[in-house]
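Batch manifest, entry 17 of 40.
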Amino acid sequence: MQKILYLGMDVHTDCVVIAALAEDGKLVLETVIENKADTLRRFIRGLAGRVHVTLEEGTQAAWLYDLLRPCAERVVVCDPRQNKLLGSGSKSDRIDARKLAHLLRAGLLKAVYHGERGTRPLKELVGCYEYLVEDTTRVMNRLKALFRGRGLRCGGRDVYRADRREEWLAKLDDRGARARAGYLYRELDYLLELRRESCRQMLAESRRHSAHDILRRVPELGRIRVAQIIATVENPRRFRTKRQFWAYCGLAVVT
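Output type: structure tokens
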């Protein structure tokens, strides 16, 4: 049987620092390669033995997970908050890569779940919709803060209505404040249109998944919440108990 090679990767924007350990814990390889898909594939496929790889969760983790899975026997994306060993002792890219390889070999890493590619489009669309909701809320809060800062009460949603905007703008005596409020109104309109468009695409993608019709039967779960649950959970069988599944979805009390 082929021996296992444990690879720890310290990932950066332009390069990846790699340390490889044999089954007996000896350091057999240490290198720095370019952070490009073809370079990484060629490197992993050129290694002898059964390759196990680990890297920390980060902005490129999902891309690297999908990239390396066909090339390696096992890929573990680990939670950096759980790796206390990385914060102790000397710090450098090479040392971090070695520590990751040692933790992988010892089985001490807590993996971060990265699901199948089938839900990746829905995850992207849900993320886009949620960011647009946050941006819309931020602009709304700025509008209200602008009026409240000049002693104007603006509770409720009346201040956002398109047919009342001229009336609200007329209440601002300062020319600069009126211009600022006008730009915020225009930004709000644009964000609301983008939000509606992204919501339509998200819901259309959500309907492609078999779990959609099942979750829609649950009382109080709307179409948007169903899409968010499918994108976040991906595979409910990865949870050991129903309680863990409910808590992860936000449907249970947690401490």
